[in-house]
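Each lists sequence, tokenised fold; shown next:
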Amino acid sequence: MLIRDILRELDLGSSVAEHDAALEDYFIETDVFAALVEDRRDTIAGDKGTGKTALYRILQKRYASLLSEVEVLPGFNPAGEPVFQRLVEGEPRSEGQYMTIWKAYFLSLVGNWVLQLNEGAFSHKMTELDELLKRTGLDSADDSASTIFSQVVNLFRRVTNPKSAELAATITADGLPVIAPRVELGDAQAQRELVRHDDALRLLNDVLNEVGYTVWVVLDRLDEAFQGFPQAEVPALRALLRTYLDLAEFDRLTLKLFVRKDLFRRIIGGGFVNLTHVNARKVEIVWDEEDLLDLLCRRFRENKEFMEALGVAEDTLNQELFNIVFPYQVDQGSRRPTTWNWMLARIRDGNGIAPPRNLIALVTKAQEAQLRKEQRGASEFTPGTQRGVIESDAIKRGLAALSTERVEDTLLAEAGEYATMIERFRDGRAEHNEESIAQTLEISVTEARGAIQALTEIGFLEQTGETFKVPMLYRGGLSITQGKAFASDEETESDEDET
């Protein structure tokens, strides 16, 4: 059978969960997913591309059959600009003020949802909740996350930036302000009304008890919302964590937080009171080599026609199946790594993170490169050889395309102020010491040490002994070649020194 025809039967799905229509077919119910649906964990932490959004999408689709008397409400907008970007507008606020915004948001989101669910059949407490939302300006005919959050932010903007002196309200950490006109009688002035957070949320919890529902509000895309705004990011998200802890008092309302591990570290940097309570309900998404291989081979097996064309049984071991699809080595030689190890070394960043997203993208791009070759001249698949249906050259071309993509959509897109520094490494060598980095960045060695720490934290550099290397994932996209920036051409090392 022609390799071209075999590869046309292979559909690995999208490496991005938001765009993967076949996600349910490929999804693996891991221990992390079990901990989530069994309500043993509230915070799901993982690096970019490790499957946080996939977990949310499957939870959203399956919760009705998996969870009894639990409603899962998306507290974010899955598509478009993250609605939480509204928090970076204007001057950064204090943690206490951000807490008021978060609590007002959850009160409004869940409160409007439950009232619309029971419209026309209000109990006494529902009527009380309805009146409270109207008094505080948190009622809404549209209970979508985007509408509610925008309404809350606009409300507090009007409170803190009145166009006239006729408003007697402000945003505090104590409660939800009720906007009222100012009335002056001599030296006396009308006092504004303040609804305490706990009282409002307790009323909401009572209403949920009446209807017999527990509500999980799921938050994702938090890293996207504050990209480039560190002054707002840390206080706003620390406030979110404190809000999460405060909501633990209420048995009918729970936050489920999907956060990147690096973002979580920034949030708790410098210490965080009651962090043990957060960590007790936190689980991290971890992918080891066996997990990644299993993920890829499961996607192969989902393509029945592809497996039949290869003449492979469904119960073939993962490594055997991999070795049928790919050559044994990308580069020949006794010191060269196997194709699997070659891939693993090239999909990871400087922090050693090798997300499934990169693996699926690499194989998909290699498949596309092989198909382009087969269109120029079709070749037959011969079972039992070490050639594979995706050849070495196609894998290398796939890596080049992946590197360019990740430099653009991940590295530079998320580097913020360090993007300019990264660009200075373009067209250079892969291995540096402190002096060569200082020279590259045109700064002193002392200043370079701070830059090295930052570039290492974001995964652009990895320390190997006394030197620092740009990971292979990013080299092609930045036209960085193998070798030492602080040595002559004759002293450069070969690719054999890296797996």
The first helix runs from residue 3 to 7. Residues 450 and 465 are 18 Å apart (CA to CA). DSSP finds 22 helices and 13 strands in the chain. The longest strand covers residues 253-260.
